[in-house]
Input
Amino acid sequence: MKAEIISIGTEILLGEITDTNASYIASELPALGIDLYWVTQVGDNLGRLVEALKRAWERSDLIICTGGLGPTDDDLTREAIAEMLGEELRVDPELVEWLRGFFARFGYEMPPSNIKQATLIPSARAIPNPRGTAPGWWVEREGKLLIAMPGPPSEMQRMWEKEVSPRLRERPGEGVIISRTLKTFGYAEASVGEMVSHLASSANPTLGVYAKPDGIHLRITAKATDDEEARKMIREMETEVRSILGGDSIWGVDADTLEGIVGEMLAQRGLTLATMESCTGGLLAATLTDVPGSSAYFKGGLVAYSNEMKIAWGVDPRLIAEHGAVSPEVAEAMAEAARTRLGADIGVGITGVAGPEPLDGKIPGTAYISIDDGRSKRTVSGTYPPRRPEVKRRATVHALFELRRTLLNLR
Amino acid sequence: MKAEIISIGTEILLGEITDTNASYIASELPALGIDLYWVTQVGDNLGRLVEALKRAWERSDLIICTGGLGPTDDDLTREAIAEMLGEELRVDPELVEWLRGFFARFGYEMPPSNIKQATLIPSARAIPNPRGTAPGWWVEREGKLLIAMPGPPSEMQRMWEKEVSPRLRERPGEGVIISRTLKTFGYAEASVGEMVSHLASSANPTLGVYAKPDGIHLRITAKATDDEEARKMIREMETEVRSILGGDSIWGVDADTLEGIVGEMLAQRGLTLATMESCTGGLLAATLTDVPGSSAYFKGGLVAYSNEMKIAWGVDPRLIAEHGAVSPEVAEAMAEAARTRLGADIGVGITGVAGPEPLDGKIPGTAYISIDDGRSKRTVSGTYPPRRPEVKRRATVHALFELRRTLLNLR
Output
């Protein structure tokens, strides 16, 4: 199946946003056995949009559009598809009802211009979008398939995962393609690449190595005549990868998140958690509370951004004077203070230098993470790319990874 | 001048890398007065590459290619350009010499395969590349201009800055294109679209409306013979937009962030800030501390995820019993507790329902934000899309927006 992506939006051609939708979809297609031949980015211009769609309709079997489904005059994707196929836009009563409901949920009247988003053409069926006011379009004609999805990545990705990808998977094809992603932390991408280099040449299953915000991911993709066979192939390679990397460094698979896994382990063990953060400025607490139901085990957090606060919340000022605010000793004291002051079973303390300026003679990117489970304390140090957001993110992921480690030993 | 970008490389179509070269070049073109109409991504396939080049040569004045200039068999950009123009590839002695020198500098013999990178066609001049073995191509024919640059961003950007951009600047006047983005909060995209709909039809300057995580953005883009004229056109439309939307709802422009603006206002006024968060779980603190130097005004934050913590940190339990944890009264008490307990000038309290489950009979997406500046308290309510991450993000942005409002009145 020959596929083509059309990314729509003048802001892309002005370089104001990078087209991550195209690369996201592109990375999803191989697992569906779909070949991507073209990606085209075009602005909010009806003539050029129709030109791009016509060409795609001629040369491709599957056309995936993102963007241009908003309610304003410069959102022209619906109009362009209708013109390209010579079909007429009609307001769909069900969509109008759904849209009114969407606004009503937030106590708004639907602005008249949103009616635009409730239109369809005869060959189009609406694709649900619970995250926004732009339904997608699923257009089938002349044995071709055209899919239009909204531009905002959170809406597009949800629509892709829950609606589009499953339907594409169901289509009669040659066998099945199944992927499994192993998520690791603590290795550099290149090191992982070297450790599994002998598997990189494998044609089926394939092994891909990707650097992600939460560590290095390894994706095993197997193509087979049936599900069972594909899973068997994946199991075999997974076993080999795990034996190479060591079980402890692989923290999860597929949709797992570190905060989700840590939360599950805390809930299972009936343990509670409290945090005291300096350089991460609350990002660890914010990440922990991304998990629904986290209130069951997350007691609370302190953002001790100044020494004054660290001391007010129980860190011995002599430790700061002696070792500096960015030190293993202070991280440990923060972890203990969080645990005792907030009455939790486990306390986490993070102190470091987010940058751009050095602190206490420590360079940006330095951080100490301590975990106190009441019986013992464990403190690790991290060195991250010295960019402020990067330091905060990496230190947060690192802390969650170490929390998992601690919990593994608290069986 | 109509421009088109062609990004070449199968790894792009496999989603293994995101095409940042295109967005980089796209962001550079407006200041050169060049209109970008198309971006095409194509794999390392001679047939499709020639097809893309032919179409670009027909419809565009300037074609900028990146990638496919390496020494291996799947690097086909030179071959494709030669075929598209019906010209012959010839080894250029000067380039061979330069290449040998390049390798010699690192003590290597030039591998035979690299001779490929020393080829040119009659219409092409080489563009120097001190960072790699792939010289660029500058091709002029039939009044059209085609530029081919290497794919590695560090090589491409250096070539663009030092060689290509200066030469394009020298070309006879195309005028300039300048953009300015106004950032608003508190309106729905469609409402903003309606308020400025009479400006949407303006051809120059143009007005675009975009929904972003931090609110609705309006982008004014003006094309003129010189910088001054363009800025004048933008000023005029900006004045009109501001009078329509009301100054207070426009919180920033261009690269401004709400946390940056709030931080600046706090620093200017010599005021300090403290937070107590429930449903946002620390995201407000984490966002405030994204700003370098925020330790100067951000005293610290409390993540009071349980009623127990809210009470421990100074919220009157009777308020919770009487009004529920998610109520204006509790938000106010949290703001005051944050201010007094953490010894700050201003306290912010946020309580709400992140979901997915309702709380105290309040539906997910409900939140109350209170700001206590020591003299007065102000509490607002918000209703957001009921997805957990969305609720946290929107409530955080809302709180920053209200903080700005408070600070505007604390002159």
Summary: Residues 176-253 of chain B form a domain with the Alpha-Beta Plaits fold (CATH 3.30.70.2860). The first strand of chain B starts at residue 2 and ends at 8.
